[in-house]
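Predicting structure from sequence has reshaped protein science. With that in mind, we have picked out one protein's residues alongside their backbone shape tokens:
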Amino acid sequence: MPPQHWSAHTDWETVCKRASGRRRYNSVRHLKMELRRIQVLKLLREGYRQVEIAKKLGVDPATICRDVYFLLTEGHSFHRTWLP
């Protein structure tokens, strides 16, 4: 039985489609994040500063800061010696 806050037009199939869309959206976001981190790593190796990388990629400098932090601490597939 569906929860009471569902409208009369919300059936189980619609709920499943919406959940599927969210999963797809989140997987695309995750892929974009991983690709950005690879770009950040390459640009750091080329000697760019974090602020320059942020401008080049069109993101906030805080995003680059978080990416660098990830690469230095949790980036299991990356090795710290790859960074300058």
